[in-house]
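Per reviewer request, we include the raw input and output of the structure prediction for the construct analysed in the revised manuscript.
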Amino acid sequence: MKCFKIFVAILVLYSMILNCFSIATASSFTDVTGNEEKMVEAVYELGLMAGYEDNLWMGNGNMTRAEFSVTLCRLKGMDDIGKTQRETDFSDVDSTHWASGYIQTAYELGMTKGYNDGTYRPNDNVKYEEAVMMLVCALGYEPYAQGQGTYPTGYLYTANLIGLTEGAGGTLGQDVTRMVVTTLIYNALDIPLMEKFPTDVGYTYRIYDGLEYKPKKTALSEYLGAVKLSGILTHNSISNDSLKENQVFLAISNNYQTRASLINYKYSEGNEIKLSIGETNAHEFLGRKVDVFVTFEENINQSPTVLVISESSHDENKLTVELHNIIKLEDKSGYYSVTYWENRDEEKIKTFYIDDDTTFYVNSQQTFSSRELADDINGVTNVFNDRFTTIEFTQSGTDTGTYDYNFAFVSVYENFVVEMVDTVSKKAHPISASPSDVSYIDFSEDSDCYLEIVDENGNNVHPFDLENYDVLTMQVTPFNYQNTSDIRSISATLANKSIDGTIVELDWSDKTVTINDTRYEIAPAYFYSMENLFDIYTTGTFYLDANNMITAFKETTADYTLYSTYFKDQDKVKISKIGNSTSITAYIEGANFTQSPINLGIIIAAYNSSNELVKMELSNYEETVLNADRGSLVWCTLDISDCTDVDYIKAFSVNNYTDMDPLLEESMYID
């Protein structure tokens, strides 16, 4: 049995099963969702805007003219100068005003203006058209805007033309919100700058877009010392041993004509560049097409650092398939055909094609090939070991016409059904073994790895709050570890869901059961156990994982509460406690033991918290009953009413009363 040594990190797990485990920007702010996340993270990580206490962005709040002047100066790389308080040209802003340096700097750089009465009105909320005008000026487009009409028309027209207001949604004459400002600033980062350029007869204006005039100059590159890149994150430290844990490789598909690509060819499109992940979670985007802002280093020997990363919002052809629905993979010499069940109920089977060079990225950490997947699907190997697995196939780049998809992102997870949590030893014990043979989870602080647990609403869950029959649906990194030292982390979703009812229909060919009037799938790794346990009219509590699949069961009868079950072939060892009594019963029932004479017995033993034997009992022949329908029934009862310290119970089945060779073993912990 393997055990997990895991440090509990109190982090927000943004990824959950299926959609829950998908990669996304790890937002620092709890009130930001969706597409807003990448914009907020960018302006925050670049130091252009700050948030509020309690990790709030307050996107619906307003921004004063003084606050906006701070953002303008930071966008121009003038934060240090703006911090210095000084005299201003405005009658209502003296040198002691907290933003006097920012206001005067913005004014001197031509980004902002005051009013005709000589005031600046720093505490007034900035209007939408004012914010637009100031950013148009900051990007150098004021001469063009003035040629398009008077204020605010010419500035609004110009802003729309250069893409500044795209998606902002501001309203003329209204106070601008922080989210509108965030969108405007984000858009401004990569807009080509317009600069005044001297000529023989005076001067002209040039837009450094990287096409007509090179290199492309932006606020990001010229004022903030960063460049924007897009591409595929091809490797991290797990998929490539040559990389350190804080490094990744990015295959550049778009460098946006930045000056970096002119100074150093390694920034050129088509090249693969090594990046330091900095404070980001860039290593989790393995195989994804991403947009990144990185520090610009003219000396490429020092890896550029990722400042902000987000998955590209480009349209892709995508298809998600559960692994157990894939019927076969066939090598077609240059590509593979994939045949799968689209809908089992309607008996719909479909086929699509993948590139033979398709890389499969597993749990955003590991890679394997089309051939390895084919071997697993076709039964040559057993890589996934009955874990529940989904694969998202995507098409990135130009479709060759030969195949439909050339990238695949694999989510592999398994369930851990909690029997009890020991707050002293800091271990969580399972009701039954998981696919990885996990005998317990160790969440002590000196463990090598970490465990992140959230509920289905994204709220953190402390391991001490776990209860009997709670289901943890886990992604283990790496998923095919060989020993404890291989384990890096576990992301776990607490699926606190159960169904009370009776089985009214069984379909073992489809691995489903109907409880009351609803049909449920059985989690792949638990199917064979359930097949021996379930029968028509079986009544009890059925526990579901994060994908609403049955993964544990507690039978309901008038006589006892089932605490734990272990399966081997058709044989069952059960430990039960009768009501609130102090009697513990263990028994076996199975068709394998109908022979005579019967040499099968049970030992049931009680142990204290120091793992010392407190009391034990051995079944005898009279406690073995033959039943024509159910085979033999062997049981043993232990009374612990006279025991002062019982921590757990173990039951052993033995195949001979003389040598006591153990056949099966099960245990349960006593509250």
